[in-house]
Amino acid sequence: MINCFVLTFQSEQDRDRMYWLLYGLWQNKTFQHSLVGSVVPFIRIGEFVKLVSYYTRMYAQSIDKFDNTVATMKIIAKAELAMQSTMKLMEVYKQIAFDKMTKGA
Questions:
Q1: Using CA atoms in the order 92, 98, 100, 101, what is the torsion angle rounded to 10 degrees?
Q2: Higher pLDDT, 5 or 80
């Protein structure tokens, strides 16, 4: 039994679009209702192909809108990474503050 599969593309732009399509479908929990398996949830390849084909055809009709959404998602992802970096830095600052407080006691 095969438990993985690979997608190949003719261009980097096609690959990038598919990445963001799949990311969006995952974020919207589109695959959730298709998951099977009680211990390790997975989606059957046939169901995956059916869902991806449907959304690929749907977005192909308004590719400019899709590309604009992808551009927005990239901006959000970049901001999210910056926030995560800031939060890590804040944790370090808290540790330093508590370290100074406990050493001064």
A1: 170
A2: 80
